[in-house]
Structure to design on (652 residues):
């Protein structure tokens, strides 16, 4: 490649980077700017809105609840979906299309319709089991299913699951060892992607919690926004930054695994995650 | 190879018996009552076309699939219902099967860890088997840093490290290029002899099977057609399928009479007994066809025109058009050079015993 062409390419890269950076950072910067304004036009800037996140007990509780929900949903997703997908691929490959269809259904059903369907179930759960907000994890598990399925499916497609698991079995490994020591390490990027998507989705979820009368982070932001717009925006910026940091961690871990991962698959995973999580993060503010 | 593998070399193999093994997939019968015994320390190659059931047999022996009937007996113990991870079997797969997140050494140590071998012993044995396959210097490499041949050698080392009772090789060379395949084939045989492990080798490559095995089993449609030493399989095939699948055969029309078969004026002895007199097709090996001389001014049923000469190294294969059929003759390259394409030649058939297909047999098998 000639030096002039390399220079033009470099300029193009920088230009794209700057434009995309502005596209994302200007709104976040503006939100941050708004959240640090004083009570009047002449009042000095302050971090009261940010401090209110910790000082407002309802908000702190909602943040903790949402984080707990994110962890529970992610773990439940991994425990239920990953072994199921592995099992289907190894033993019932003819069912893979059916499983894919079932997993993708929540993507095609509007959240409001899902909630309407779940109201009687949750009414029963509230009366007979528990009325904790953590029971929302059940609904969220269904919500994250399509995204998690896609991420995990990409990871499973990138490895020769049958041969690797049979090799491990022939060496004396039980199924738990096959999963924990052979399958999971070889699709850690996909697992991270699926986990990130689950976390981002749960942290950004509003409709389910609001209609089922639970107060999670997004519902709390909406309530706080009615009386204190600054605090509400501060929480929104914080949740966006949290998701951004998660993405950075994912990219870093994805790169670290590059020496033994199939580069194409890893790139695909990451591109898919960024594309999908962009949508998820977008939903967080609605 | 160093002398550090004495413990491996002195271990005796065990007897493996497959008794009337059956496996069906829906309406398809993959294995139709396979019975096979591997003597201790013996290497048996199962050879056959795709779908003949050879890989199914190996997977049933490994415990990776369940049989619909029959028994698998290893060292006198019935393991038919024992899961794969408790059968004490080492296996090398057709596809590269090294765990990509582990180095060669870690791959080898994986099985030892599962067998609760302590760390020092694990490292010692990993070094030992990697040395055995000539890859001690590559112990810290990941799979993607090694060639296909090296990966398969590490896979062999990994399979041997746990000191299994039986070694199963599922077309381990088929993904490699021809030169590496030949080298690794010899290496597998050397290691197998050195370790003395009973081995079942599955392949569709006849050259591989004939070169490596103590005995070759030729399979077709889920059944064992013939089992015997490579020379016997090649030179004394007992069925037309084996004759045609192993090596090349010319199908030459003839007539069974006087206890032999007359092919274009030459009387050849028969392999089969009690073949009814009448028209038949004789299966004649190319090396049993020789060029008897110049055919420019000759005539007769074995005179024809050379239409192609294929150079195969020390030997060449000459295709001769006899008018109604074409015949392959295999002869030393120096002799084949005298008969370029277009020249007229007179063929002769060496009176080796041949198999014949009669019309009745063909009808019956159809």
């Amino acid at each position: 490649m000639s030096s002039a062409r390399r220079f033009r390419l470099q300029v193009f890269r920088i230009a794209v980077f700057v434009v995309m950076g502005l596209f994302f950072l200007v709104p976040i910067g503006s939100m941050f700017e708004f959240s640090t304004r004083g009570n009047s036009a002449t009042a000095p800037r302050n971090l009261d809105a940010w401090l209110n996140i910790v000082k407002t007990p309802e908000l702190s509780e909602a943040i903790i609840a949402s984080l707990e929900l994110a962890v529970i949903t992610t773990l439940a997703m991994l425990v239920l979906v990953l072994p199921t997908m592995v099992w289907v691929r190894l033993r019932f490959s003819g069912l893979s299309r059916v499983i894919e269809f079932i997993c993708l259904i929540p993507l095609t059903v509007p959240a409001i319709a899902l909630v309407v369907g779940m109201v009687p179930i949750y009414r029963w759960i509230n009366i007979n089991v528990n009325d904790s907000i953590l029971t929302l994890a059940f609904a969220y598990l269904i919500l994250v299913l399509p995204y998690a399925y896609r991420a995990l499916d990409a990871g499973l497609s990138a490895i020769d699951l049958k041969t690797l698991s049979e090799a491990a079995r022939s060496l004396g490994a039980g199924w738990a060892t096959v999963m924990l020591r052979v399958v999971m390490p070889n699709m850690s990027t996909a697992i991270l992607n699926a986990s990130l998507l689950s976390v981002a989705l749960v942290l950004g979820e509003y409709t389910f919690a609001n209609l089922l009368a639970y107060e999670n982070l997004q519902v709390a932001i909406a309530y706080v926004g009615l009386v204190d717009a600054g605090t509400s925006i501060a929480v929104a910026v914080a949740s966006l930054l949290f998701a951004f940091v998660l993405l950075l961690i994912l990219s870093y871990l994805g790169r670290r695994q590059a020496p033994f991962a199939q580069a194409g698959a890893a790139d695909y995973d990451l591109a898919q995650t960024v594309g999908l999580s962009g949508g998820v993060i977008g939903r967080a503010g609605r | 190879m160093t002398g550090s593998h004495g413990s491996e070399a002195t271990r005796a193999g065990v007897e493996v018996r497959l008794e009337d093994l059956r496996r069906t997939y829906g309406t398809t019968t993959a294995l139709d009552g396979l019975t096979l015994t591997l003597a201790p320390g013996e290497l048996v190659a199962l050879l056959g076309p795709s779908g003949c059931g050879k890989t199914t047999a190996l997977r049933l022996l490994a415990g990776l699939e369940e049989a619909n009937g029959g028994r698998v007996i290893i060292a006198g113990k019935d393991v038919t219902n024992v899961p794969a991870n408790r059968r004490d079997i080492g296996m090398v797969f057709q596809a590269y099967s090294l765990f990509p997140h582990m180095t060669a050494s870690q791959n080898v140590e994986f099985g030892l860890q599962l067998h609760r071998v302590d760390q020092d012993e694990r490292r010692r044995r990993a070094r030992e088997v990697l040395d055995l396959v000539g890859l001690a210097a590559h112990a810290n490499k990941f799979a993607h840093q090694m060639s296909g041949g090296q990966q398969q050698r590490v896979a062999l080392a990994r399979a041997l490290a746990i000191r299994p009772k039986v070694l199963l090789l599922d077309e381990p060379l088929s993904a490699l290029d021809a030169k590496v395949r030949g080298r690794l084939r010899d290496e597998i045989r050397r290691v197998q002899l050195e370790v003395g492990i009973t081995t079942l080798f599955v392949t569709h490559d006849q050259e591989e099977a004939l070169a490596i095995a103590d005995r070759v089993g030729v399979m077709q449609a889920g059944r064992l057609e013939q089992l015997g030493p490579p020379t016997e399989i090649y030179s004394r095939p007992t069925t037309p399928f084996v004759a045609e699948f192993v090596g090349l055969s010319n199908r030459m029309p003839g007539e069974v009479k006087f206890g032999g078969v007359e092919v274009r004026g030459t009387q050849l002895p028969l392999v089969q007994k009690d073949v009814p007199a009448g028209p038949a097709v004789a299966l004649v090996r190319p090396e049993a066809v020789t060029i008897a001389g110049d055919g420019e001014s000759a005539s007769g049923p074995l005179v024809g025109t050379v239409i192609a000469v294929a150079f195969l190294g020390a030997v060449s294969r000459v295709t001769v058009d006899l008018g109604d059929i074409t015949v392959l003759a295999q002869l030393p390259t120096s002799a084949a050079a005298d008969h370029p394409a277009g020249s007229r030649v007179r063929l002769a058939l060496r009176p080796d015993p041949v198999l014949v297909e009669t019309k009745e047999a063909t009808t019956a098998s159809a």
